[in-house]
Amino acid sequence: MNLHFPDPVQYAIPIFIAMILLELAVFRFTHRDEYELRDTTASLLMGFGSTIAGALVGGTIVVVSNWVYGFRVWNIGPSWWAFAILFFGDDLCYYWFHRWSHRSRLWWAAHVVHHSSQHYNLSTALRQTWTGGPILTWVVWLPLSLVGFPIQMILFQKGISLVYQFWIHTSVIGRLPAPLEAVLNTPSHHRVHHARNPRYLDANYAGILIIWDRLFGTFIPEDAADPPIYGLTRNIGSFNPLRIAVHEWVAIGKDVWAAPGLVAKLAYVFGRPGWSHDGSRHTADEIRAEWERLGRPVMHASPS
Amino acid sequence: MLEPVQMLISVSGVALVLLLVWLATRRESPVVLGGEAGARALIERELLGFEVAHLAVDVGGRRALALSRDGKEVALAYVMGSRPTCWRLPAAGLEPLGTRPAGEGIVAVDVPTGDFTRRTFSLELQADDARSLLGLGRWAAA
Fold first, then answer.
1. Which of A162, A170, B58, B72 would staple B63 via disulfide (CB 3.0–4.6 Å)?
2. How many domains does chain A have?
3. Could you say which of A40, A118, A198 has the minimum Cβ distance to residue B17?
4. Is A149 exposed, middle or buried (0-12, 13-18, 19+ CB in 10 A)?
């Protein structure tokens, strides 16, 4: 099947830039320091690097997807109903990709980049990984090829999802009307996802539809009494894009080298982020348990 | 891949964004930890269960080092750009590399962190604070 679809991200770039400028103006006039030059520079460079890294592994993804497509169950062409099904299928794949990216350190090492800013603004949306392709995070979408969706349709829908997820990286927009908050991933839901408050850790993995989180028990609503504080439970200490891109890989290497025994070495690679053999570091669940034990203290905004 | 015109739009747009961010933020005062009280509050708020026993704040006000009450942990507080944050490290094996003069009555203390994103945590302290910090038996014995 000879199909060609435009890349939605390419067409959205001027809109991305215009929206960042608009957001910057809003923050300027409301006297909020949500942008920082080195942080924004790092985010944009990570975005550029991610595009290049994606192009380098794109061929492999297409070849493997086409190979899987050879075993397809149905022949699905580009029709309205096919795109409707693909919309839900892609979004479900995204949910599981995203959930596993937070719960397995191997994939977290790639995804941590996106959470490494302490700022939450539209430039943060562009802070993307350089290393997701080589560790096969794209295999989550292969079932769609097996079902019978051509790779061109899948890539188009993934582009739509990526464009959608740009605008939710903002604190300018409060909450949308309740019916939309019930169904869609919104700025409010995604602020929770980027927060490092113990209350909010490991929640709201949605791409476009928040229904998956509600369905699989990972939804946490934003609580005005505990405003999100952004970044990592242990923030990085650099704006250098190369260090941002590989810091967790270096940490894994050090941990594996120093770990006592094969089980611990494997756990440092495939276990939960934050796991340690000697209890010196903590997983999200352990942090939340400690937070509960201490009476659920609220994490106020840091002083300035 | 991007077409040449799209590439031009992207690069120009990024340059414009960075220029406007610079213009919008260049006059902002540097964020500081808020003295001893601010640093203590930050550490105890961000690091669950960490009780500060001894605290030394850098003369610039953007970095601080604290020892926990049980002597087992060290907190490093610092401002990353415009956002304060903290690290929690085991005190065992965390020894200052040494000190060096950094001005009249000021001593710089370098602490190796073992972290790829910030290998050394440097504090410029009043000489008395530095002596007090380095002389703490609990840290030395940890």
1. B58
2. 1
3. A40
4. buried
Taking chain B, what is the end-to-end CA distance rounded to the nearest angstrom? Answer: 55
Kindly list the residues from chain A whose CB atom is less than 8 angstroms away from the CB atom of residue B115: 237, 251
Judged by CB atoms closer than 8 Å, whether chains meet at A303 and B84 is answered as: yes
| Interface membership of A273 toward B (CB under 8 Å) | no
The number of beta carbons lying within 10 Å of the beta carbon of residue A220 is 17
Domain residues for B103?
35-141
In this structure, are residues A219 and A203 in contact, taking their beta carbons and an 8 Å threshold? yes
Identify the CATH number of the domain in which residue B134 sits: 2.30.29.30
The pLDDT profile of chain A, 304 residues, written as one tens digit per residue, is 678 898 999 899 999 999 999 999 999 999 888 999 999 999 999 999 999 999 999 999 999 999 999 999 999 989 999 999 999 999 999 999 999 999 999 999 999 999 999 999 999 999 999 999 999 999 999 999 999 999 999 999 999 999 999 999 999 999 999 999 999 999 999 999 999 999 999 999 999 999 999 999 999 999 999 999 999 999 999 999 999 999 999 999 999 999 999 999 999 999 999 999 998 899 999 999 999 999 998 887 554 4
Which of A35, A294, A302 faces B48 most closely, judged by CB atoms? A294
Check CB contact under 8 Å for A237 and B6: no
Count up the domains in chain B and report the number.
Answer: 2
Which ipTM value was assigned to this complex?
Answer: 0.88
Residues of A in contact with B90 (CB under 8 A): 280
Kindly report the pTM of this predicted structure: 0.93
Say how far residue B70 (Cα) sits from the centre of its chain: 22
